[in-house]
Specification:
Blueprint: E1 10-12, H1 21-30, E2 36-38, H2 46-50, E3 60-62, H3 72-79, E4 86-88, E5 108-110, H4 119-134, E6 143-145
Parallel strand pairs: 1-2, 2-3, 3-4, 4-5, 5-6
Pfam family, one: LRR_6
Length: 150
Amino acid sequence: FLLQLTRLTSLDLSLNAWVDDPLLIGIAGSLSRIVHLTLEKTDVTDKGVAALSSLRLLQHLDLSRNSIRGDDAALAAIKSLPALRSLLMPYCEVDLRVLTHLPPTLERLKLSRALYIGDEALAFYASLLQEGWERGAPCSLRELDLGSFG
């Protein structure tokens, strides 16, 4: 029935074990007006996230506490979201590669309590970001949460 609610702009499916990749793929194909999508602690993985690139109006995406590792297809989908302003991924299994796959519109990124990243990896990704910013790569990030990262 969810996929028939084509006028939805906000959808919170948090804490529902029945929310999985096939459903997320259906949402991405049917609910093009979604602006706010919350999927905290569902059964969504990288495969479902990879389908989100069709949600061109999506501004807020909460993927907290899911089995998301940040594979190339999922990160490419996130980067391709032209309106995304807020991305929440605490307690996911992503690494700092996500920092190199941010859409230029992103203002808020929460990665607290994500997979452990050592000091060397942190320094490496920080240097990549710095190089990108020095080359004029657009960045709207205003809030970055790496609390208890690692």
